What we know:
The protein is mainly α.
Amino acid sequence: MREVEIPGGTAVLRDRADIRTRDRQLVEAAMIAASSAFRKLPDGLAEAPENATDAEKAKVEEANREVLAKSESLTLEEGLTLGQYKSAVIVAMVQSWTLPEPLPTMATIGDLPADLFDALETAINPLGAAKDALEATEFDPPPRFDKASPTTGSSDSEEPSVEAPSNQLTTRRRSSGASTPTESSIPA
């Protein structure tokens, strides 16, 4: 755990190994949603050294924001998913803080003052974490199945079936609506 300065107090951040399962799942879902945005990000994003001061980290984060602002290839949706990912990482990483407000959730993180959000983002560096995770994770669809596999797709058939089932359609009689008594329905 690491304590960082934030506007109005301090925050204690979880180590990545201490992130709760529900938070990890939130971050993973946000990462998957933003995967197309991550692929479009320029390689020029910097990462502050682990022992960097908060001022040095803020400088690196500001430089990264400038690089991202110049990136014209992101769609609005991709930009929003990238923001959701950053928010998810911050929610997952902040264990406690000295501020009187409750800790942020995904529903409330957008209400944080910009300087507080920026300080948390700088301390956590969610884009640096995502870059490492994306290099270790493959989101592309799997290659086409081997023809010898019993699990090939239905469109993989070489030829259509020759024999069609003889009873594909079943005819149904319409009821007149009147009931007919049967032996079992007549009282004894």
